[in-house]
Batch of 3 targets.
Target 1
Amino acid sequence: MIKRFHKSLFGQVVIALVLGILLGALWPEFAIKLKPLGDGFIKLIKMIIAPLVFCVVVHGICSTGDLKKVGRVGVKALIYFEVVTTFALALGVILAYTLQPGVGMNVSPGSLDASALSGYTDRVSQVTSTVDFIMKIIPSAFIDAFAKGDILQVLLIAILFGCGVAALGEHGRPVTVAVDHLAHVFFKVIGFIVKLAPIGVMGAVAFTVGKYGVDSLKQLGLLVVIFYATCAIFVVLVLGTILRFAGFNIFKLLGYLREELLVVLGTASSDSVLPQVMRKLELMGIKNSTVGLVIPTGYSFNLDGFSIYLTLAAVFIAQATNTPLSLVDLLTILAISLITSKGAHGVPGSAIVILAATLSAIPAIPAIGLVLVLSVDWFMGMARALTNMIGNCVATVVVGVWEKDIDVARAHKVLDGELEVDLRAPIQREPVVVPENISYIKNI
């Protein structure tokens, strides 16, 4: 049993977490120097995400054979994202207002050092209006989207490209087959990179503990505890209830994704497991067309953990600086956060930057109060990333059930442990469907 634990990715990541904590606590100066291990692992994963998303989405659209269904899945996913995100934002406000983590701190805004925010406030301009955000989805060039690794831009290109190939009917089949083979190559590359996950996790955890230590948690410990508790409540009660209506158990899904959850916990980045999560959901029995559309879109439109953080931190800062909040102020925080949270992915230092943009639209709360959460932002980032990832996985399952794009029997066997999945095995994808009526192509 011990040998099997040692050889599994789950066991290796657990050991890496423990080693990282020990290194950070005992040899902090050395641990800080291990930061490139975590950064390097995340960069290796990120370099493969854009082409992989492109291949999965293109093949998914072509294998569906129904372009109306592709649009229907996208619309349903967006509706789901907005409803669940609103629940997350509201939960953050309610618990912060009820438990009052900032009450009693009595911090004077004039006593805070604004220089600590200079690196973040300079990037607030990257958080644009809704129109600018939509325009930003359109890349300036085909290759530019892949070079920048902008998932939304890659998704737009993949949808257009996939629709174009599907519209060609039989003539587009060779392209679809080639894209599918290319996707298998990328998944194989991901398999090589994932073997480095324990090293990346150890480096990231060692750096965090070595640089910040546990002392930084003392003053703002209540805020961190409340945030983790809020995320747990959201996952178990909100997402768990939604998944139960879809016919599945949230704890079984978490057990199935345990390796990915540990990697996210260690690196504080949900990007680090995006390819593996997509692969696991496909192996679970969800069609690749649904997985390819919902997961990448959710990385920008369904940030549940980030949404909780925005409203919770905003109310905390108001309480800590003795700023009274009316019902109108609370509703304003909800409304503004619903918009600003959509621009989080891809913005450097996104948590503080988006929070700064949110507070700038609410004059009642002093923006300088952001200094209060800087020291614990990394620790909160772990819970943000975990909740974001879980939320997107649940969304994929729900949309799959909604669209009947999931093999329910297989999914239950996988989650119950009755059917083991092999990430190294090729995925049996749906055959390419040629539309019956493609006569309109002659007019192009």
Target 2
Amino acid sequence: MSNSLKDHAQRILDLADIKINGNRPWDIKVHNENTYKRVFAQGTMGLGESYMDGWWDVENLDQFVDRIIRIQLNKKILTPSLIFNVFKAKILNRQKKSRAFEVGEKHYDVGNDLYKLMLGKRMIYTSGYWKNTQDLDEAENAKLELVCKKINLEKGMTILDIGCGWASFAKYAAEKYDAKVTGVTVSKEQAELGKKLCAGLPVEIILQDYRDIDTTKKYDRVVSIGMIEHVGPRNYKKYFEIIKKCLKDDGLFLLESFSCYWGISQSDPFSDKYIFPNGSIPQLGQIVKVTEKLFVIEDCHNFGDDYDKTLMAWYHNFINNWDKVKNNYNEKFFRMWSYFLLSFAGLFRSRSVQNWHIVFSKKGVPGGYTSIR
């Protein structure tokens, strides 16, 4: 049985030019013959968990994932866990308010010590902007300045930052543009550190769900950078309606969002369990369908390839600094976190997942909006 499963696996992997126990950087090395049965039975969950358990290895996991995604292996192996996740995504509101803090507790609160060593100096946990840059720190600064330019930020403006992370954008906007920023996060660790990093600046960090934002307050600008992936399709309308209420009539709103061609129909069980619980990557069309009735879409900018570079930079920081934090974790966490970073890099490299900046206005920018790249 194991040999037949292995042969079947090899026939599929041949489509991606991957050899079992081959010698190239993207060839998979199988240490436990039960890997085949586990993957065919459990799909991406089995693939990820068997890697965590040390059942298989690959020299360059990012290249391996890039290749299997390009042949749409996720569509070739349908498993009960995948079908169940699809059902949950379509039928249930897994991003309802009672679940809002789960992703903060399970992912963003794993330890500020880890994130400080993994991310760049400004602790941006979204893609850098690598145009004309040489390293992660430069890419982080370029990204923050890009956002400020895209929203035409002026001195002294007020900004609402929904999903503010460790307040990296808030700190930058306050320091460089004297902006007054209100940031919202569902992570206790992010809120605590964000407040320390912004001490003495006109920045307020609030630990709350976006549905509890005070919509009587109006802001010159609103940004939401890498947050909508936690909102869920059943809540998009409410999410964007809240933003519209908070934005002044002549204001601008910038959304940074993943998008993928498979959208809601293929929620990944491994990511849902270990990385981003209750997460849902939207399709660009889903965002457009909701927002076109509420806003004028002024600009769309896809820089998904930059996320590949960013994730690889995070991975190298993680590997190079692991000895400093490994006593706080274990080997299984190390393999899980490595799998997360490298597999996401492979996803973006395959171009099946994109990263967008979308700029909105409420009534259209008089004379037209000037795109910034």
Target 3
Amino acid sequence: MDARFDFCSLPKMNETIGSALMRAHLTDFQVREILGFKPTGTGEHYLVEICKRNQNTRWVAKILADLAGIGICDIGYCGLKDRLAETTQWFSLCSPKRQIGKDQLRHQAFDVLKIDRHSKKLRRGDHKGNAFNITLREITFDRKVFERRLNEIGSVGVPNYFGEQRFGINAGNLFTAAKLVKSGRLKGNRQGTGFYLSAARSWLFNLILGKHIEDHLDGEEFPFLQTGPLWGRGRTRADPCILLKEARLLANWSEWCYALEHSGLTQERRQLIVVPSALSYEHLYKKNLTIKFELPKGCYATTVLREIAQLNRP
């Protein structure tokens, strides 16, 4: 692994309190998409809530299109959900004249939970957030120490990193992004490189956030209420001191910044810290526990868990 793209090397706000096994079973990682609004009950689209296990969101979208007899472009969804998990999410199906019922959408790859008419197609980011129910096994930390860390997270929050799944297996999306930047072909969705553009933008944000944490660990006050860059063209109203630090760090990534500025994206800002809501836990038998919490859209459960334990995979 190229050290430049090692997610595990990004600094944590606190030392972990022990270790735990994550994703030992498929249902150990459960995600429920929170729309934040209700179907209108009328309109040219159907909103369909499905529960999938070990399935890719795009693959499920294709199956739904085939079952409904519509084109893949008539399917909408708010975001990609983990494959190696049990995930509940919403899809929209454009079918202004044809009636679609639950029975028509039956498939072994997923369960249809709800279906109702709606006025609009779902777009990326239309949802409010996600609720997580995650089981950690073979934990090595003390219960009271864990409770203190959980209380701290619920009060102060965690670094709002983009999770490692954003960057592909072994950071493959970042290696591809680097090649596209070098060849001048990182141009966005119209050229089919939008996925890698997003990974590049996310990585630069992570680097900035990691630098803030490093400086905090060295005694500098952390800018809890500030934001970091989602790079693109244009200026922002961020704090001048924050912008100066970002410019110094990203000077080593000038080619990436240039590519993002000329990709059609405008610069946006993302909170450096995210505070989970509805945070709770339950001890299970032996050395296992389940932790529950909700996060706004675009935030990652793994960034919460990495502030608690060293996460091992089976």
